[in-house]
Every structure is written in C-alpha cells, then in structure tokens.
# Entry
Amino acid sequence: MTPRRATLAGFAAVLLWSSLAVLTGGTAGIPPFQLLAMGFGVAGLAGGALLLRPGGPGLAGLRQPLAAGALGIAALFGYHALYFIALKNAPAVEANLINYLWPLLIVVFAALIGDARIRAGQWLGTALGLAAAVLLVTRGGRVQVDPAHLPGYAAALGAALAWALYSVLNRRFEAVPSSAMAGACLAVGVLGGLAHLALETTVVPTAGQGALILLLGLGPTGIAFWLWDIGTKRGDIALLGTLSYAAPLLSTGLLLAFGQATPHWTQAVAVALLLLGAWLSVRPKKGSE
# Structure
C-alpha cells in the first residue's frame, strides 16, 4: 500500500471516530466500562469472523510480537479508561479540550522520536487545528481551571499522551498485519468487562441501544482501529496528526444534524480554521513539484 493510500485509510478512521459522540449519546444510562466491553467485544468478534472466513488468514492473522500486542492493548484500554476517568472528575469542556491535545502531540512526537520531518506548514496547520478544537469545546468562552478537578485534568492529559505515543510508536511494528487488531480489540473488551464487573452495575440495553452498540463496535471501535493501524504504520503520521482535528469538528456537525447540539458562531470559525490548517498541511513544499 502506498503512503498516500495509507494516510487516507488513517483519515477514514478519523471520520468514523467523529460518529462516536452521536452513537454514545444514544446509549445514555449504559455504564462506561460496560459500553467499552460491549463495543470492543463486538469489534473483536467481528474481526475474528473476518479472519476465519473462507480464504481468510485464520488465526495466523493474530500473530504478532509480544511488544506489539502489549502496545495495542495498553493504548486502546488505557486511553479509554483515562478518558472515562477524566469525564467523571472534571468538567466535560475542559476534559475534552485537554484530550484533543493528542493530534498536536502526534506531530510533536513524530518529530522527536519518530522518523518524520515536519514542515513549517504542518506545524502551523496543527496549531490552527488546535485553535479550532478550543473554539468548539469552549464556544468562545473562558476555560476555568479549578484545582479540585486536577485529577480529571491529569487523566485527560494522560489519555492524550497515551494515544499520541501509541500512534507514533506503532510505526515500529510495520511488519505486523493490521488483522492483529482483532485480538487487541477482543482483549480490551475482556478488560473492560472485568472493570465493569468490579466497578459498575450492569444495565440491560434497550433494543435501540443494542443496535447503536452494534454500530459502535463495527465502526468507531472496530474497523476504525484497523484503518488507524494502517495509517500510522505506513502513512504520513505528521499529516494524520494535523487532519485528526477534523474529528471534533465533524462530531459537532453530526450532533447538530441529529439535534443533540445547538448552532453557534464558533462552529463556522472553526470550520474556516480547520480548512486553512488542512490546506497548509497538505500543500507541497516549494520545489517538490
């Protein structure tokens, strides 16, 4: 697969993640770790079915070095666990703002510990993406930092760091097939189930919620991670970091479309900032054409 196609695959994962808020909003009342267990359980089982289909690689598609498996499982479970902790211990606006540092951190880590050469346009595009995310989550207001919420803020920062580090370090396992993500998703589903049994009370989903959980498992917590695996291993990781700021923007658009959010002037400004940032990021360097 060419780097361009791999980058497009990674961006397709971002598009799928933008539906996470709408789908999760329809599962109100389901405890977070139960939702995590069910979503990733669906993803793992669906991935396993694909591997075992006639002509598929079978269980051989799950083979990978121990370090690669540990990285994937720790990142998927750790990110979501920290994010849930952040939402329980800090206001959603501030927690989301800190969490959306992960695209910026991907660009930073790609320059520091990866093999990526970051152009000035990509740095500027990433900064504009961050500004767009700030506008979306704060709606142009002030961000209040309450010391009482520091544990939640720390968890949100931990989530951002975990996902950014995983995205950059995952490139070191380029030889591992993306089909191995099926095993990681299933393992995360099991860990989520254990956390649910230890910390939460089970809630039986309605038929409608069951359908949304199925979509969640097949999309944002399923194929999205396979696509992200392809993008981070074989695509332009710095460009992916910049384009990932499309997630909060597209998520807001879907919330508006389904009546789960109200229009605000900051959304239009965020669109302009994101489009400008994306153009700066993908614009070829002078003399490269």
